[in-house]
Design goal:
Blueprint: E1 8-12, H1 16-25, E2 29-33, H2 39-42, H3 55-64, E3 68-72, H4 80-89, E4 94-97, H5 103-113, E5 118-123, H6 126-130, H7 132-136, E6 142-145, H8 147-153, H9 161-164, H10 167-174, E7 179-183, H11 195-204, E8 209-212, H12 214-219, H13 225-240, H14 244-258
Parallel strand pairs: 1-2, 1-8, 2-3, 3-4, 4-5, 5-6, 6-7, 7-8
Helix pairs in contact: 1-13, 11-14
Length: about 300
């Protein structure tokens, strides 16, 4: 089983106090999300998280923390040059390019960035999966496999299928840069796929980073990030220390959970699997606003 040196946790938020505390508790960075061009059309009826973050939000987050700050811009188009300049002016340390389909748009974006910050990409189309080796040869800061949009692009109803059919493993084998997939919430959460099993799968693949999104924010209601984030990181260390037999048993449990009843079907989003935490988890009706701290979290003072 691959041994991780670390699993970096990146929180999607534009709430300055919440972001500061989660970072101080051990998260690796913050993601401000500008991606929305074509997303409502592409994800119509899927119950997914579509953010409306702005340049001003990015600037506020930069002023609030000196932690690592990522900005997900829109997929490549005539607007990309302006978005790259805006993100850099507002203080982004890295830019994330979503919905990549080939090397040309990545090369053009690298030219626009011109070494001023890191550029990461999201592999969330079949075209990008097919070109993973070529994409990984680019000087990218990180590569992330987006399960929800990949499911939509494949016209599939099975969110987690790429984790059990060899797709993500094949991409992982090509990537030398920091690699990410899925997302996490507290390990006692997650349904219909338990978060603990998903976390074990991320560890098995040697995942370097993952996201904390809506399911994490919802599950944190009434909890202290200075307790829960270190506990999540310690839980990941514990999974990493498992022997080969235990790791194999967890992999078998994960496959059984993915292939079990109630996992398939439209609207099962990367975090739209309720609480499972994969990329934007569906906590519709929970009262949690995307990117905002849960109202009842008792926040400890930052160190």
């Amino acid at each position: 089983m691959p041994k991780l040196t670390a699993v970096d946790l990146f929180l999607f938020t534009v709430d300055t106090a919440w972001g500061r505390d989660v970072l101080a508790a051990g998260a690796a960075g913050i993601v401000v999300d500008w991606e929305r061009r074509g997303k409502h059309r592409r994800q119509r009826g899927e119950g997914t998280q579509i953010n409306a973050d702005t340049v001003e939000d990015l600037a506020r987050m930069r002023a609030a923390t000196d932690g690592r700050l990522l900005c997900r811009i829109n997929g490549y188009g005539p607007w990309t040059a302006g978005e790259v300049d805006d993100a850099l002016a507002a203080g982004a340390d890295e830019i994330f390019l979503p919905m990549v389909r080939g090397t040309e748009e990545v090369d053009r974006t690298l030219d626009l960035v011109a070494g001023r910050c890191g550029l990461g990409i999201l592999i969330e189309t079949q075209d990008a999966v097919d070109q993973a080796a070529a994409l990984a040869r680019r000087p990218l800061a990180r590569i992330y496999v987006g399960l929800n949009d990949l499911r939509i692009d494949r016209r599939s109803t099975e969110l987690f299928r790429p984790l059990v059919d060899g797709t993500v493993d094949a991409v992982r084998a090509e990537v030398g840069q920091p690699f990410g997939v899925g997302g996490l919430t507290l390990l006692e959460g997650g349904s219909p796929v338990p978060s603990a099993l998903l976390a074990a799968e991320l560890v098995r693949m040697g995942t370097d980073f993952t996201f904390l999104r809506r399911s994490f924010t919802a599950d944190m209601a009434g909890r202290d990030p200075f307790v829960e984030v270190p506990r999540l990181l310690a839980d990941l260390d514990g999974l990493r220390a498992a022997d080969a037999a235990t790791a194999a048993a967890r992999r078998a449990e994960f496959v059984a959970a993915v292939e079990g009843p109630g996992v398939e079907g439209p609207g099962v989003e990367g975090p739209g699997v309720q609480g499972a935490g994969v990329e934007g988890s569906g906590v519709e009706g929970s009262g949690v606003t995307a990117g905002r701290a849960p109202a009842a979290v008792p926040v400890a003072a930052s160190a």
